[in-house]
Each structure stands twice: as structure tokens, then as C-alpha cells.
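Hi P.,

Sorry for the delay on this. The queue was packed all week, but I finally got your sequence through. Input first:
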Amino acid sequence: MHHLPLAPISVTLLFPGFLCQCDPPVEVPESLIAWTGACLSIPCRYQSCLLNPRRSNNPTINSLAWYLTPGYDPEKKNFSGTVLYKHSAAISPDFAGRVRFLGELERDCSLQLSDLQASENGLYGLRPITSNPRQKPEERMWMTKISVNVMGKRESPGLPCRNSLKIHIPPHPLL
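Then the structure:
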């Protein structure tokens, strides 16, 4: 009887949470409903793979931008739209004094708009700009979209905008 030589076998075990996919890198609601003249808060938080500073191979957030009616321009190879908020940059004059970024670059990416207008109905987009310390510097082309339906004036007055937003977005169940 002949025996074949044993070859080393490579086995990869995957445990939930061990390898983290960051696509999309943020958690936001798919859609929101608001009324004309109301305060709209868009809750947003970064995925855990962007939050672990101890793992040096995790991507880090350098900046972010919130857009109304975002789109991708293939010629410029960049996103465009009405800028609601952009870290360290000017925003659209139509939103000056009405938009507040409630988060920071570490955990929370929530946005708040006051005195919502009917023309602000539509698609909103958040673009976190990340880099990976183990790779050459580059921008990842992520755009997370949220649909906002702005309805007519509400019969009873809504609550005024507050300085902070306490949110809870339930974690996705493991499959």
C-alpha cells in the first residue's frame, strides 16, 4: 500500500465580528418623514469597524460631508450636490444658520436641519472620507443615502430643535 505525502492544509475560521466589513461605513435610517417648518434630525452612527482605534489596520475618518440630492460626476470623479455640511468647509447659503452637525469624527455623524422647506424633500447623502493607515492615502468613494419626505405643515406645532440628539439605532442581527 502506497501512502501519499501529507500536504499542509490551511483553514480559515470566521467568527462574527472578527472581520468587519465597512460597507456601508455608517448606520442611518433608510427614510424619514418631516413637515414643512419642522426640525429634522437625521440620526447617524459609524460602524464599529471605524471605531476601534486599537486596531491599526482599521480605516479612520478624515472628514465627512452631508449633501442634498447627491450625485456622482464621472468626469470629475467626485460627488456633488447641495452641501449641507462639510467638515472644515463652507456650506450652501440656503442652509446657513439652519444646519447643525450634531456628531464628531469619532462616533456620531448625526445632522439636524431647522425650519425645513418643501423644496428640501428628496435624497440626502452622507459621505465619510476615510483612509487606511496601512495603505497609501486615498479617498474611498462611499455615499450613504437617506430618503426624506417633507410633507405640508403640521396642524400642531412641532418641538423646537434641541442642542443635542440622543439616538438609538438597534444593531443589525447576526445572520
